[in-house]
Specification:
7-stranded mixed β-sheet, Dipeptide-binding Protein, domain 1, D-Maltodextrin-Binding Protein, domain 2, Dipeptide-binding Protein, domain 3, alpha+beta, 5-stranded mixed β-sheet
Amino acid sequence: MNNRRIAFVRVLGAIVLAAITTVAIPGHVRAQKLQGTPLRVAILADMTNFDPMQFSLVNFHLIKNLYDSLIEYTADGKAVPSLATEWKIGEGNKSVRVTLRKDVLFHSGAPLTSADVAATLKKASDPAKGKNVYATMGIVQDWTMPDEHTIVINFKAPVPERQILDLLQFTMPIEAAGIDTVETKPAGTGAYTLAGRAVGQSVTLKANPKYWRTGEPVSPEIRFTVFSDDAAASAALESGAADIIYGGGARSAVRLRDAGYTVTRGPGPLVQVFRINTTRPPFNNEKFRQAFNYLMDRDGILRVGYAGLGEPVALPWAPASPASNPAYLKEFAYNLDKAKALLAESGLSKQEMSNWKLLVYGTDQPTVVISQIVQSTLAEVGINIQLDVLEGSEYVKAQLAGDYSATFGGVGNVQKFPSRVATNSIYRTKDNPVLKEPHPFPDYVAAIERVNSTYGSEEKVKAAYDHLNRVLVTSAFAIPTNSYDVGLIVSSSKLDGFTPDMDNLFVARTIGLKK
C-alpha cells in the first residue's frame, strides 16, 4: 500500500472514530423487570460439540447456557459464588476446599454432587479428553470428597490465589453419567436444555424448568441460526428475522449501533500481537526488535482495523487483567525518533533490516489492513518489506508451525491470571513452536514462574507482575497493539438484561424484553 492510500485509510479511521461513543456494558437487570420472549440469535459459524471443555470460539454461544461454573467473575474481576457457595484456600495455598450448592439438578434430573465434580476434574486432567481445560489442570495433584457436597482439590505446590480462582471459574461440572457422551449430548446444570439441532444450520435450546437460579431464565427459548457472513446476519437483524447477533465484526457493529441497535461489549477481549520469530535475522537482534515497541501506531491500528472498538495496549493484557498497566502505553507510545535511535543502535544496514516478509492472514480483513499500516510505517524509517498474504488453512499451518519472520495474531486468556498468556503459542514457555527449544528468553521463563509461585501480600504479587511486564518489553519477541472484541453482541433496543461474562461467552438466562 502506498503512502497516499495509507494517509486516506488513516483519515477514514479518524472519521470512524469520531462517530463512535463509549460503549459500556449494560448493568444487570433483574428478571422481574423484563418480559420473557423467544430469542432468535444469529451466529456466524456452527458449533463443534457440546463438551464445555471444547473451549472454542464457535462454541461460545452454547457453553454458559448449557453449563454453570463453580464460581463466576464480575466484569471487574471479582470472584462470586455460582455452583459453589463458598471456597476456602488451605494453609500454604496448597489446596482449596469447595462447598457445593444443595439445590442444583442436572438436566437429567440427577442432583449435583462432589462425585460429578470429581469426574469432571478427572476428564480435565486427561491430555486426550481435557481439551482446552487440560493446561489449567497442570497445578492439580489430586482431590478428595469429604461428603456429597464438598470437594478438596490439592495442588502440586503452593498456588497463587488468582490462579486457584481461575481453576474454579474454568470448571463447569459435567454429570458423571454423561461424561462419555457429552460431545453429542450435553450433560450440564445450565439455564437451558437442548431442544434440537440441524447440523450446519441451527441449534435450539429451551428453558430448564428446574433451574436453580430463582426467576431465571427469563426467556423460554433460544434459537441460534448460522449465517454465512456478517452482512447476512446484519440483514436478518435489520429485517426483524433475528433479535441478536453474537460474534459479529466491529465495523458492522458500529454501523448497526448508529442505526439504533444496542452494542454490548464484554470484559474478555483478545489482544492483537505482532509476533516475532527471533530465530531469524534481523529479528535475532534485540535493539531491532525493541524498536517495534515504538513503531506501532496503536491508535491508528485500532481506528482502522477495529472501528475503534477496543483499547490500545503495549502489554498483552486485557484491561481487566490484574497485570494491566496503562503507564506502559505512554512509555512506549508511537515515536519514530525513538525507533530510529534503536535501529541505529542495532548496527544493521537498511538492506539487512528490510530482508524479511510480514506474513498476513488474508482471510481476516482487519489483519490485512493493520499489516499494510505497519508496512507503510516501516517505509517511513527506511525499512521496505513485502507482505506475504496467505489464505485460510495455508496461513494457519504456517502460523502454528512458526514458519514466518513476523505476523499479527490475536491471543486470548489475557484477562485473568497473567501466566495464562503462556497458553498462546508465541508466549509458551515450553514447546514454543516459534521460538523453539531451549527457550531463547530464560528471563521470560523465570518471570512466568515467579508469577506462578508468588502469593500472599499484594505488594509481592504486584512486584511479580511488574517484573514480568518489564521483561516482556525488553525481550520484545511479541509487540501488543490493541485489544479487540470477541463475542460482540448487537441486539434490538427492545431487549435488555445482558450479563457480562469474563470470557465474553453468551449468557442468555437474564435477557428479556423491556416492559
